[in-house]
Amino acid sequence: MAALEQFQANRHDHSDRTSTARLSRWRLWLSVPIATLAIGGSLTGIFVDRIYAHETTEWAGEAVGQDITNLMVFPALLAFAYAAAKGSLKAQLAWTGTLIYSAYTYAIYAFDVQFGPLFLLYVAVFGLSVWALGASVASTDPARVKERFAAPHLVGFAAYLLIVVSGAFALLWLGEDIPAMIDGSASDALVKSGLPTNPVHVLDLSLFLPACMLAGLLLRRGRAWGYYLAPVLLTAMAAIGTGIVVLMVVLDARGEDASMVLAAVIGGLVVVLTVTAWRFLQGIAPGNAGS
Known about the structure:
This protein is an all-alpha fold and 291 residues long.
């Protein structure tokens, strides 16, 4: 009986490793078109004026700032994908965080940049990112992430950081949107961007910030999904925050209205998020998600 149980356990373990290997190879190859298209599109947006010629000066400046950020994030996505394909659970979690950044960013490009020569590229990166994100979540066992975590002293700080930052940004966006709704007029940010609604507020208030809040609460309660979501969303927060800082610097350089004090504050927050994500990932023992 014991021999039979051991045989079945070994068979399941071999099946898990084989499945993970297949997913890892698929993950790596899917990351290549995502990063290649994103980097190519961003270089085009930076150097070809007509890409954002129909946007307001404010929105065009923000788009260029996001393009510059993409040139930093997507090479990192490739590096994480390669390490994940080698079996690193830490890299898979970081890769998943950068995929959230990619899906988030390219949802904005696809829906809120005027139709032009890069439209299908935006759609492709957005779609590939969402499918890759789903595959990453499906191929990871949150319980095993928790089992491998060996730095309990980080849990409280990471949980409260997720809760506080997501709550603060939700209040910030609501403080801008609710008065404008009551007055029946567009906010200053919408007037400057020329958009019907703010895509960042839509994505943040409906999906991203609630997910970060939930991750913090689950982590604080010791739930497995909290241990999985915390490093993923901290990584995504750091990448998205970097984009905010860069686009504010670009706007200031172009003579648009941008607060460098606010950019410095968000930059400091990005440093905290990055260090916390890195330390959390370092607290996970080596291994892959399927073993």
